[in-house]
Design brief:
Layout: E1 3-7, E2 10-12, E3 18-25, E4 34-39, E5 46-51, E6 57-59, E7 67-72, E8 77-82, E9 91-97, E10 109-113
Parallel strand pairs: 2-10
Antiparallel strand pairs: 1-3, 3-8, 4-5, 4-9, 5-6, 7-8, 9-10
Length: 115
Amino acid sequence: QVQLVESGGGLVQPGGSLRLSCVTSGIIFSFWTMGWYRQAPGKQRELVASMTATSRLKYADSVKGRFTISRDNAKNMVYLQMSSLRPEDTAVYYCNTDPELSFAWGQGTQVTVSS
């Protein structure tokens, strides 16, 4: 059974930082490209960052230079360091493989950027 559990979200002021974490189980983590997705109210879920098993990185244009994805294969975890946060970054953030496993979506973690 695949489980993806996100944590680390919260309320932050514009310009602030947050670090999201995702612990995974039920997959051979080190083989997969892992991604962070987000879904804002009224919008479709989008991929914001991904990292291959060989550490190749991909970022959405909207987060380039502000977000950094990383992974720890020994702990089966993936992280998203977010800085210079903007109100438009407000969303529920999810981790999943890239491309996603449709049956594996977790609860996500809410990130709200507001003054």
